Each structure stands twice: as C-alpha cells, then as structure tokens.
Amino acid sequence: MLLNPVVCKSPNFKCSIAEPLPILHKHYHSGDLIIGGVMSQIYIFSHLITFKERPSKEVFEEILQFIPSWTFHASMCVLSTQNNFIPNYKCDVQNNLIAVIGGSSSEICLSMATIVDTYKIPQLIYGSAPMMNKQFEALFSLWMFPNGDHQYEGILQLLLFFKWTWIGVMFVDDDNGERFVQNVVPMFAQNGICFDVIERFPTITYFNDIDEMVSQGIKTYSAVMRSTVNVLIIHGEIQTMIFLRMIPDLSKYEDIPIKSKGKVFIMTAQMEFTSLPFQRRWDIDIIHGALAFSIHSKEVLGFKTFLKMRNPTLEKEDSFTGVFWEEAFECLLPTSRVDLQVGATCTGEEKLETLPASVFEMSMTGHSYSVYNAVYAVAHAMHAMHSFKCKHRPLIDGQRQKILNQQLWQLHHFLRSISFNNSAGEQVSFDPNRKLVAGFDIMNWVAFPNQSFLRIRVGRIDPQASPDNVFSIHKDAIVWPSIFNQAQPLSLCNDNCHVGYSRVKKEGEPFCCYDCIPCPQGKISNQKDTDDCFQCPEGQYPSHGRDFCILKDISYLSYKEPLGISLSTIAFFFSFITAFVLGIFIKHQDTPIVKANNRNLTFTLLISLLLSFLCALLFIGRPNNVMCLLRQTGFGIIFSVAVSSVLSKTIIVVLAFMATKPGSNLRKWVGKRLASSIVLSCFLIQVAICTVWLSVSPPFPDFDMDSMTEEIILECNEGSPIMFYCVLGFMGFLATVSFTVAFLARKLPDCFNEAKFITFSMLVFCSVWLSFVPSYLSTKGKDMVAVEVFSILASSAGLLACIFSPKCYTIIVRPELNKREQLIRRNNF
Asked: Do 489 and 230 form a contact (C-beta atoms < 8 A)?
C-alpha cells in the first residue's frame, strides 16, 4: 500500500510536513513525499506573510518542482524493489503492488494516475477528484468520494433553508475550482443566490511571482473579509485550512480590518483541518461555528483503542509515525535523524488522547473513513477475484498462482462491482461512474480556547432517501460564531422587505439588492421580500398596514343605524302631517277655500304626497327582490301623480282666469274632466315607462364589492340605468312645465289663485332634484340611498309646505276668511 489507511488519517498530516525543505528530504520516505508535496507552496506563502522571509531562489525552484517530480518519484518507488529504486524493474517478488490508495489533492491524484494507470494498477482516490482529460487515465480510478453534484445541491439547499442569498466564494485555483465557478455558481444564481465576491486562493508558479503572490493574497483576503456577506463558501482541498487560519494573523501585519469571526464558513468535503507546526498555538476561533460538508462516516469499533496502542518504537517500518510523534509532542526520539539534538526527548509513552484536536483527533474523519473503506474494498475485490479464478480455472496450484500474479490488473473489474458491509454496518459500493455510493454529513465545528474543537453532526445529504428527505438539518443544534450571539445569522444584500412592502431592483446592483416600497392602495403583501403586491380576494380589503386582508362587512341603509332611524322618523313624521292635512281638508271640504281649487286634485295631491313619504321607507332596510322592484318604480309613479296634480292645478287656474274674459271659448275646458285627464295621462305614461323597465331589465338585489374599500354594499341594482333616468327625466319634465306655467300665472288677480304657492313649491322641487343628480353620482354605498331618500322627503315636504301651509293657516287660524262673503268682498275691493 502507498499509504497506511489508519495512520494516514488527515489530522496526522498536519504537524509533520511544515518543516523547511531540507528537513523534508531527511524525514520522509517516498510514500510520504506525496503528502508532503501538497504543503510546499503554502509553506512559502505563510513564511513570507508571517515572518517576512523570502526563501532562496534555489530552494524555491526546488519546491516548485517538488510536487510533480516527487509524486512521480514516489509512485515509481512503489513499483520498484522496496529498498532500491530501479524503474521498470521488480526484483522483490515478496511484495506485489495490487492497488494504490491515495491522493489528498487533485494535483497529486493526477500525477499518480500518470504512473499507475500506465501499469493498469487500480487507484482509489479519497480526496479531491481530478478532472482527467484522457479516458485512459480515468479507466483504472475509483473515487472513495461520493458524486460531487450531491454536495453542491446540498450547499444550495443549505443556503435556501437559512435564506442566505448574499454570499461570497473562495476557491482553489485549479480545474475543480474552475468547474465549481463555471457550473455550480450559475445554478445557485438561478435559485436566487447572489455573489458579492468570488475570489481565488493565491498560487505561484515562478520565483519572480513571489511578491505578486503575496500582494494578490492580501488583496483577495481584504476583498473577501471587507465584504458585507456573512456566509462564505470555501471550495478547497485538504490544505486549504492552512490559508484560512492565516486570515486573523494577516490583519496584524497588513492593517486589514478583518471580520473573520463574523462570517459563517461553508466548507466542502474535500477540505480537512490541517495546519503547519508554527500555527500550533494560533487561535482557531475562525472555524468556530463553521458548517463543513463531510463524507458520511460512522465510528469504527476499535479505532480509538488502535490509536491508543500506537507507539513510534513499535512501528519499525513506518518512519512517518516517528516524524509525526516528534512534531506532535514537540520532542525528539533517540533515533531521530535531525542533526541538532535540541529539546526534550520522546519516551514513546506519550498519549495521543492528550493532544488537542487541532494537533490530532481521536475520532475518525471522513477522509480516514474513506481510506478505511478503500482497504476493505481492495480486500473484498481480491477475494472475489480469487474465488472467480478458482471456480473457472481449475488448474494446479502453481499455474493458478502464476495466472493470478500476471493478471492482477483484472482487479479493477471486481472493484467496480464490489458491494459489502463494513464493520460499522454500512454498505460500500460504487455507482456506474466509479464513485462511492454515499451521502454527505453536515458538520458544525465548535472551537475551544485550548486549541481543541468538536465536530457535531447537524445534518445530512442522503441521495438514496426519498426526495423529501434527501436534505435534513437540525438548526437548533447548530452553534453559530460568537459574534451572532447564538442567533441565526442573516446574509442579505439589504434588509428584508417587511410585509406590506414589495421590492424593486436597484439599478446597477445584483438582483439580490433591492429597495422596499409600500404596497399601492388596495393591495397587500403578506410575506417578506415579495416581488409584487396583490389584490385581496373578492369580499376582503387590505388592513391599515397592507399586510393582510380583512373580511368586508355587508352594508346597507338599516333601521338600526342613526341615519336610517333619522330618515324613517322624518318619513313617518311627514306622513303624519300629510294625513293630518288630508283630514283637515276632508273635514272642511265644503268650505270655499277647499272647493275653489279643485277639491279632487287637492285630495289626489295629498294622497300622493302621503304615499311619497311612505315610499321612502322602501329604501331603508335590507334589500330584497320585492323592495328592489317597488323601490324606483313606485317612487316614479307616485311622484308623477303628485307633480301631474300640481301641473293640473296650475293649468286649471290659468284656464279659469282666461275663461272669465268676455267671449272666451275656454269655459268648456274648465272642469274636472280636464284635471283628471292630465293626471291620468301622466300616470299612464310613467306606468308605461316602468313596465318597459321591469320587462327589459328589472332592478335586483346585488352586492357591490368595489365601491367601498372596507364594505360590501348590498344594494338594488337598477338593472337598466337608462330606464332609471327616463323615469327621473319624465318627472323632471312635468316639474319644469308645472314650474313654468305657475311662474307665468303667479300674478293673476284671484283670491284663490294657487299659482304663486305652486311656483315656490316647484322651485323647491326642482332645486332638490337638480342637486340630487350630482350628489347621487358622487356618493357610494348606503350614502347614495340616503341621498335619494332625502331628495324624496325634501321635495315632498316642499310641495306640502308651500302649497298647503297657507290654506291650513286660513282654515284653522283664520276661519273668518274662509267664507264666501268675505271672499266676494275682497274680490270687489
């Protein structure tokens, strides 16, 4: 094996690879150099930033060539004799390489694949999967890493769950990082996620680029940490944590007001907690409250016991354990190859459990779990292949062993189809794309002042679950960064638009940045950040804050409200007065003042006025079919009779005066027949108009939902407005003619002349109804009905008062004037 699956768990790397390059050469054998090479550029950058030192050009150039060249070298070493590096020759038949497990970064995986795929050796990759351009390179690779699309979908669901729409991204400048930006970031944008900053981690390729690398790194960190986002996605690899840990320290030297503790990091599963030796005592509060995706794992039984048994004196063939031991416990082993023997001496009895988690974790991480499963996958595949060959190749033992050794490349076929349950009780298998069939855990990192931390599982991405259960999160279990005081952080371009407001895009800004404007009149918004306000359903109206709808009350002119009570009281009062006047005239019907002005017309007029007052009551109360049919038609017919009676009285007065002239032929027209004809003809015309109205489009009860904001008006729909105005128009015509005739006859010399009183009554009547039209059209709801009732009462009261009050005064108060002799004497005078 290239890497020990247990010892090479990711936390164990972090303290043993940060020494300057000469020491790296002394301490690492070929297999370990693959891991050590990942950290070389990080070491340069951190050394320059933290200590302001520049490595020599020779050392730097050696470092730049360290990653690919030594990865190739290490890969070739495992193919050669154990103790001698002889490329393309394998002299030690006791150790046969059957598979390679390794690749903590995509760069190392690709370099390893260049060598091992040439020999058709299966490579199980547990870190970042590289983008392999050649199909041959990927043919013998299996990924102990689930499909990355599930992780990106999980990140999106996490952002949407917490409503984080204003975020930043930092990514490693490699093929995987570019793929993330090109493919995944647009997917986030389509789901309403905006990006304030998208920055690369600094990289370097030439010695002359050191200053530019440092400058670019400072610029990148400054842009990210000055951003207003509270959520930052870190798309990196195993070594990316070293860069993150430099952020708080960077502000001390570059005077950057970094607010790293005010951001929630969302880290991809390719990352792991890794650090350099000089970072050992650095504050790790920057990771406190971070949310990290991790390959789904379970605690393996016996793993902690295994770790407690580790001892550098027992690991004779594993030089890595000794190097790690010295770095972790800050001591030197007696067998150390370091020239300068300084510091305490390691006894080998030190306990791993006493180390803080930032140096060594006693629990199995996702990467370690992948390596663990990879080892057993190879073992199960070997067993399956051996069983297959034994079953189908019944050869003698020597020939079978020879074939087995010659055709080990066939192991890849069995690896792809392997499926087994590991000791933790979970199934291990690969999908058609040779990727591990598994999900991701969402871990919450909680840091402590003693440089230790915990990973708390707070959620999961399970692609095999039902669609509703693929993403799960327990937000109450999450510990947020200290600055948020354990309140869920918000990451928005601006504050949410509250209910009652809608958002409008800011010009020149991302779509997540917007202004909030109040909902227009008549509309509401009952959710935050709505793009548009909407009308309330029919029968409801917006609240004062325009944030919810209120059920409208049904409104009509009722007898129970003050206005209805007042109008009905007035109607009954004038009805009583009219009945009283009618009684007086009936009682004194034989007196000259009653007989002189056509007694029948007087009674007809009084009865029609009485009915007019009572007709006003049809407009008060809850409308129904009968009321709606009788309301306007009854009012129109009754008022037509009343006005036609007044017109008839006026015409009779004029004709009577003209008939008294000598030789006049008009005497035959003066009489009851003419008066009755005028009233009857006007009555029949109005009845005809109302009949047509009721036949074509009769009035009906209706609900007016729109006229009033807070009420539903229960009213009588006129059916045909044209017919309604025809009824009013005919009454207006009669009133105009009556007023004109009465005005011309107002000065006729007759003691019983009613013309002047009729003139005043018609003046009142016309004034009321002329003012009625604009008032009726400008009011809504029950006020409209009240205007019509008032007009009916006012015009009727005007006729009653102007025509009959003088006569009643004479009959009741001055009865001496109601005598024929008195009238004749006054006439002669």
From this structure: yes
> Concatenated DSSP letters for 369-424?
HHHHHHHHHHHHHHHHHHHHHHHH----HHHHHHHHHHTGGGHHHHHHT-EEE-TT
Which residue matches tokens 């107002």?
Answer: 746
**Checking phi first, is residue 36 left (phi over 0); if not, alpha (psi -120 to 50) or beta?**
alpha
Tokens of 250: 């960077």
The DSSP H or E segment spanning 254 is helix 240-254
- Compute the mean pLDDT over every residue in the chain, rounded to the nearest whole number: 78
Q: Hey, what are 210's tokens?
A: 């050191």
**Band of residue 829 on the pLDDT scale cut at 50, 70, 90:** very low
- Tens-digit pLDDT profile for residues 60-73: 444 444 456 777 77
Q: How far apart are CA 829 and CA 816, in angstroms?
A: 17
β-strand partners of 715: 702
Flag the least confident range among 418-422, 460-464, 506-510, 603-607.
506-510
Reported as a single tens digit per residue, the pLDDT across 164-209 is 999 999 988 887 888 888 888 899 999 989 999 898 887 655 545 5
> Residue 291 and residue 305: Cα distance in Å, rounded?
29
The distance in angstroms from the start CA to the end CA of the chain is 147
CA dist 436 and 265 (Å) reads 26
The distance of Cα 564 from the centroid of its chain, to the nearest Å, equals 48
Cα separation, 172 vs 179, whole angstroms: 11
626: amino acid identity, one letter: V
What domains can be seen in the chain, in order of their start residue?
10-143+298-429 (3.40.50.2300), 148-296+439-484 (3.40.50.2300), 501-551 (no CATH), 562-828 (1.20.1070.10)
Torsion, Cα of 40, 46, 52, 57 (10° steps) = 10
Answer yes or no: is pLDDT of 390 > 90: no
CB under 8 Å, gap of 24 or more: what pairs does 221-224 form?
A: 221/247, 221/250, 221/256, 221/258, 222/254, 222/256, 222/258, 223/197, 223/199, 224/168, 224/170, 224/197, 224/199
The number of residues making up the chain comes to 829
Residue with tokens 């002119």: 557
- 456: phi then psi, degrees, rounded to nearest 5: -110, 125
Name the β-bridge partners of 436. Answer: 430
Q: Which two tokens stand for residue 179?
A: 């793929």
Q: Are strands 291-295 and 264-267 parallel, antiparallel or unpaired?
A: parallel
| Pairing status of strand 231-235 against strand 166-171 | parallel
In degrees and rounded to multiples of 5, residue 353 shows phi and psi of -70, -15
Looking at residue 137, its pLDDT comes to 54
**Sign of the CA dihedral 36, 42, 43, 44?**
positive
CA–CA separation, 683 vs 642, rounded Å? 9
Alpha-carbon span 512 to 67, nearest angstrom? 42
- Going by C-alpha positions, the residue among 605, 596, 612, 594 that lies closest to residue 648 is 605
Number of helical H runs and strand E runs in the chain: 27, 24
At residue 5, the pLDDT reads 30
Give the distance from CA 474 to its chain's centroid.
21
Rounded distance between C-alpha atoms, residue 506 and residue 485, angstroms = 31
Distance in angstroms (rounded) separating the CA atoms of residues 744 and 167: 89
Decide: 415 and 427 in contact? Cβ < 8 Å. no
The amino acid occupying position 679 is V
Strands 471-473 and 453-461: antiparallel
Give the integer Cα–Cα distance in Å for 675 and 677.
5
Distance, CA of 437 to CA of 116 (rounded, Å): 24
Dist CA 208 CA 211 (whole Å) = 7
Q: What span, in angstroms and rounded, lies between the C-alpha atoms of 385 and 411?
A: 7
Query: 50-89 in b/e burial notation, b at 16+ Cβ within 10 A?
Result: beeeebeeeebebbbebbeebbebbbbbbbbeeeeeeeee
Amino acid at residue number 84: N
